[in-house]
Structures are given as C-alpha cells and as structure tokens.
Amino acid sequence: NAGVTQTPKFQVLKTGQSMTLQCAQDMNHEYMSWYRQDPGMGLRLIHYSVGAGITDQGEVPNGYNVSRSTTEDFPLRLLSAAPSQTSVYFCASSYSLPGVGQPQHFGDGTRLSIL
Amino acid sequence: GIQVEQSPPDLILQEGANSTLRCNFSDSVNNLQWFHQNPWGQLINLFYIPSGTKQNGRLSATTVATERYSLLYISSSQTTDSGVYFCAVVDQNFVFGPGTRLSVLP
Asked: Average model confidence (pLDDT) for chain A?
C-alpha cells in the first residue's frame, strides 16, 4: 500500500523557472492538500481540494496553482519560482473533510531550493 | 482564524524520563490531531483526539475542549522519540501549531 507519494524528493531551481510537484494517493481519498514547512515553523496550507474538479485556496496560495482532474492526483505548480518559495512541501490526503475527524496521511515531502 | 500555541518550544530529556507537551487553541474545534515529525522529516499520525483521553503504548493524550487545550504525555522516553511534535486543529482546514522540538539523549 503506497499511501501518499510525492515526487521529486529534492529539487533545485533558478529564480523564474517553473515546475510541478507531483502528489498521488491510492486510498481513494476525497480530500487532498498541499502545505509548506519553513524552518522552525509548523505547516501552512497552500491549496486544498475536496474532490475531483474542486480546489480552493489555503493560507498562503500566492505563486502556486493546483488542479484536481482525478481523485488520485493533486499536482502543485510553481509558476515563476522565487527564493521565498524555498521550503519543504508536503502533500496530505484524508477520506473526507478534516472536520469530520478523519486522520490525515502525509507524503514524505519535497525539499525545494530556489537560487 | 484559530491560533494554535505549543509549549515548550524545545525540550531536552535524558532517556527514560517522562514529559508533557501542551497545545493551546483559541477557539472551539471539531478535530485535533497530534503528529510526530521524525528526524528524517516524515510526519506520522499519533492521535486523533478532539476530546477525552487516549493511550497508545508509552504515549497518551488528553484534550479538554471546553478549556481549549490538549496535552501529550510521553513516558519512559527513548531516543527514537526525538523529533518535532505538532498539534493541529481544524477550523475549516488544519491549522498547525509551531511544534515542540524534543531531543532525547542516551
């Protein structure tokens, strides 16, 4: 059982480049989300999705786009990378909305450095 | 939005010692979870505990929702307990606290 799979694990970009962080889950979860974790801080929500075709902004959405064309996949796109986006990115999924009490399952993270 | 605080920010223990980590939140919540981030960065669910008390081996957690706090107890700590412990509450989505960094020395 793979759970939540994130690729790549590490990436270095130059300022202005674009890239897509991949997230896939095989648990048939409806709710998926992206967080960023900066040094000494907790996780902050970037974007989330409550099902295929439905996405919404979290706390820190600027500079990121998402789409949810299938239940399994939830890619995060950086349109024009900036040094302030250097961070560790986590994807998470759960069976339903967090308020219903379902535990969140996290991927192993993507360490992204913007030079 | 909901504010989440955790204390202490850092904790150093000798192996075998007990510890209590605290999470305070500013409003009523539907969901509270504790996570452990190990030294390799992986996030692991510990407890889903919006109220009451749960135990899992050497770890237990208590949430007093009416007083807006939760406690995580670690007994007989081991070096493998090292890492950062986060609590997260649900407003509409998860809101994470800043974490408590625990170092258990052999």
From this structure: 93
Secondary structure string (H, E, C) spanning B66-95 = HHCEEEEEECCCCHHHCEEEEEEEECCCEE
End-to-end CA distance of chain A: 36
C-beta separation of B68 from B89 below 8 A? no
Cα distances (Å, whole numbers) of residue B44 to A68, A105, B48, B55, B105: 25, 8, 12, 16, 21
Alpha-carbon distance B49 to nearest alpha carbon in chain A (angstroms): 9
B20-79 pLDDT per residue, tens: 999 999 998 878 999 999 999 999 989 999 899 999 999 999 999 999 999 999 999 999
Question: Between A58, A90, A98, which is nearest B90 by CB?
Answer: A98
For residue A8, whether the previous peptide bond is cis, meaning omega lies within 30 degrees of 0, is yes
pLDDT tens profile A56-103: 999 999 999 999 999 999 999 999 999 999 999 999 999 887 767 677
Joined tokens for residue B100? 């408590």
CB pairs under 8 A between A and B: 56
Helices and strands, counts by H and E, chain B: 0, 11
Enter the DSSP assignment of B65: G
Measured between beta carbons, the chain B residues lying within 8 angstroms of A106 are 35, 42-44
